[in-house]
Each structure stands twice: as C-alpha cells, then as structure tokens.
Protein 1
Amino acid sequence: KLIHYLEKKYNNIAKVNIIAHACSDGEEAYSFVSKLLDMIGMEKANKYLPLSAHDINDEHLKFAANGKYKIKQYEYISLFQNLGSRLKNYFELIGDGLSDNLVTVKENLKQHVTFKKSNIVEDIGGMQLKNTVLFARNVWPYLSNNDANKLAKELSEKMDGTSTLVLGDFDKMYNIDVLLYKYDLIESDIV
C-alpha cells in the first residue's frame, strides 16, 4: 500500500529522496527496496534510489553493510508472500525455508541502499525534506520527551506537502501520533 501511495503522490516528480532513520541492521531498508523494484521496475524505481539508511549504532551498520541475516520461518514466509519466486532476484537463501535460514542480500539490491552513521535528532536541523520520504519508524518511544518534541517541531517546520513521514506501529502504541498532531503533522490515508 505504501508503494502505491508514493507512486500516486510523486507521480509527476522527477526525483524523490528516501531516508530511513533508525534503520537498525538494514533488513527493512533492503526489504522495502526489493519490493519497490519488484512492484514498479527499475526504470520507475530509479527516481527513489538510492535509499539512504541511517543508524546511530556501529554494530547495526556493520550488519547492514554485510547484508547477511539469519531469519526465522515466519520471516521467510513473509519474504515469499511479498516477492514470490522472484525473491531469488534480490536474496540468496541458504536453507530449506522451514527453520532458521541464512539470507544474503545480492549486490543488485545492495547497490541501491547506502548506510551512514547519524542521529535523527542531531541531523534534522540540516535536513532538506522537500520531495522526501522520511522513515522514522519505531524510534520515537526511545527518544526523551525533549528530543521527541524537538524532532516533531522541526519536522513540522521543514516538511511540506511534498514530504512524507513514515511511522511504525510501535510508535503509535506510544501515542506518537498525538504528539505529531500537536505540531500539525496529520496522518494520510493510504489506500
């Protein structure tokens, strides 16, 4: 649904920046880009790439750059449900899909994600968010109240109608959407 939403919103925009803060070990960044490429093809996806993934943890970034993940059966099932047999275009699976498996991200996917050490609260002041999709998923509950308010305030000042902020369910469990409403950051309908 998110990719359909982005395609509709940014239909007439030549270049869209995608930034994923708090990317952890990169699994979500790689998954998103693989689905983007699979759904709309390289020609259309090119305007969104590369995805710039950021995290504050050196160990996470080391795993992300390596692109090798031990996954459970339910994660394999999710990959297969999203990509079908085409998952082999983006990932190499070592295992039978029934228990713990090793998945390696192929170079043709790795090349579309760049990783960088950074902190969203410190970086927001210098960020340009026009024509930008900003993933800040499942990070808000880890921020202090002061940092969460600072980030929400700065986002409200920098984001416009060409910007998209992507949150996670974990954020909503902590009522971050209420804080964002305070700063006029209103949830979009994704259909």
Protein 2
Amino acid sequence: YQGEQKTTPTPEAYAVLQKINEKLNSDLKQLEQMVQKTNLTVPEGTVTDGLFFREQLFKTGKDLHLLASDHVTTLPETLGFSDELPDAKRVPLLLRQLLTIQETVTAFIESGAGVLSLVKPLDPVEHKNQDTGQVTLVELPAQIGAECDFQTLLAVLIHLRNNSQAIVVRELQVKTKEEETLQVQMVASGFFIASKQE
C-alpha cells in the first residue's frame, strides 16, 4: 500500500481482507488434498526414474488387459505412451497421467463397454498464476475412444464423478454407430499441483 501510495486499510477493511485470504488458503488446501491423493512418487533409491515409469506402465497395462479379458472388453495393445525412456523431470507428470488413464479405462471396462478403440495421452496444459507468471497447476489430459450404449456411458460419467481421484471430463463427443451403440470420444484430465513437483 505504501509503495503504491495508497492509504492504509482501515481495521475493518483489513479484517475483511484477512477473511478473504483465509478462505483462499482453505480452498487451496482442499485442492491440494484432493490432488495429493493422486500424486504418485518415485521411491527413494530408484536409480532411473524413467525406468520406474516404464515398469508402472507395463504393470498398469497388464492389469487393464486382465480386467478387460474378464469383462470381455477389447482394448488397444498399448496405452499410447512413447517407447522412449522419459526424462526424470517428466516422470511425476507421466505417473499422474497414467493414473488418469487407468481410472478412466477401468470405468469404461467395469461399466460394460464392449470396445475401447483409442487410449492416448495428450500434451500437458500449464495453468499459470496471472500475477507471477509461475505455473501453479498442470492439467494432464488423455483421449479415450470407446463403443458402448447410453447406460454404459452414463455409468462411466457417474463413476468418474464419484472417483476419489480428481478427474474432469473436458470433452465428450457422442455419435450413433448403429442401433443402441454409440461411438464415444472423451478427453479426461487429471491434475498436478506444480509446487508438489519441486
């Protein structure tokens, strides 16, 4: 206030500003708790972070294919990630994106989708603080293509809404393929609080 040559706030105005600040801090803590549940960390002593991600990717792919086999659901062979060993700095983001894919694909399988034709991680989207320009939140979207009926799609959306992971359906395109069968293209996003990466 002094630097900008403004008058000092009155005690009443200061009390209001303090309440606003407390509310914002409370909201931030709630967001951190919701997203923190989903942040996977590389165990201490891991020699190569990228190798740890590849191991998690293999394990998740195997688990999803077993689940799909039990539910007679067709899955793509891979989960769409590059075959290259990722840079260590990207591993926390990739782990979170893998978790988003795992939860979304599981929702489709368990809800009764017959075919998942596409599983594709998309480029991260950084959300910056307008005042400082620092990245505060990273959105980690994944595209899913599926064939199912309306009740299955509804069950998937409810499953994702009620999921303990923070997953938001960003885009949803639905076309009728044949009687009672829908072609669904969905973009679902997980989130990563940038401060947790440091």
Protein 3
Amino acid sequence: MTYLEICESVLEEINGRGDTIPSIDLGRDPNGDLYVTDPTQRNIIRWVNDLYVQIQQQNLYATFMQERGVLFTTVPDQMRYEPAAGNVRVVDKTSLYLTRPGHEGRLPIEVRDYAAWIQNQRAGNLANIKGTPISIIKAPQEDWIVFPVPTQVWDVNGDWWREPTRFEEATDEPIWAAEYHDILKWRTLLLLATEFTEEGTANVILERAKMMLMPLERAFKKRYSHVQTNYGASPLL
C-alpha cells in the first residue's frame, strides 16, 4: 500500500465509509487554504508518517534497512568522494571491494584509520601518490578519501544501512515487505482511539487494533530479526 492508501485504510476502519483523503500535504495552497481541513484526517496523515520513522528507528540494523550496491564511483585524479548511493548511515567495512565498470573481477580494498592517514599526510609520506586504490578512509565530513588517488574509474561496492526516512509523496510505500504494511494502519489506530470521547467507540477500536497488530508484529520481528548488537567489535563505519 502507498502512504495515502494506508491513511485512507485507517479512516475506513473508523467510519466504514471508504472516504478519500484529498492530499497528504498538511500545508496550505497558494490561496492560504489548507489542503486537508478535517482534524481527524490531519492526525492520521501525521501519525502514519511519524510511526513509519519510529519503526525504522527501532530497527536500525534490520535487514529492510540494509542496502547493497555501489557506494560511489571514482574518477581520475580525484581524492575525495561523497556517497553516490545517498542516504548512507553506516557502512559495513568488511563488505567493500573494487570493480571496474564493464570488467569482470574484483579487487579488495581496506579501510584505514583517519587519524593515521592525517599523520602520514603531515609527514609527507602520501604526497602525490597515484594508482590503483588500495584503501579508503572515512573522513569526519562524511565523505571518503581514496588512496592512492585513482588514475581510472572504479566502483567502490559494499553494504550499508540507510538513515530512517519520512514519506514524502502520496505514492511512497514502506521499505519493508507489503504483507507488513498494515502495521502502520493498526499502530495509528491505537493512537487515534484516544481521540474519541465515546468510551465504547474507543474500546472497540483499541481491541480490534490490538488483536490485528499482535500477530502481524510477531511475524514482522521474526522475518526482520537481524540486529547488530556487538558494537565494541563492530565492523561498521
């Protein structure tokens, strides 16, 4: 389901009418009028997005947060690079390797310590060295230093975990498998039930949401159970 469809499914659970939500934009149009005026709909839009971020934050090293591909591509005579992949939070340094576009084969590449790199730079030991990269260094400015300075185009490949993100468009979908998208619906209903002044209505919504959510979250945790816990010996950057 898309972001908008999840929001509308929450609304349908409340009133059963299948009403549409005109937009996921909580701002105002050029005339200064709200795109969405209904208070309940505004809460649904906000809470679905907040809960989406919360679930990602609670599962930072779950497999659905993991990506694998080209971290960045070098160009001749350039030393520093920003991750071309975008949204890179933590990199698994044991997964990194080099490939040349259009060629088979891989070359290992090691990760060096930034402080040691600076000391060697000050001593002049690394000045003007160019060639096939053998190491990369994570700089404090979130970019990467490649050594030696490459003379050819290389892809630096590896695994990384992404930053939690928010829904931006109505057509955006959660990054986990589709069979677990309803987690956002039922979690939002748990929050929304507190908005109802009629105790009977609130209790009905709460009980239904709890009943539907428990087995779904159990299956979700079982599928996405990988978590990096040994930070002291972690191979992460």
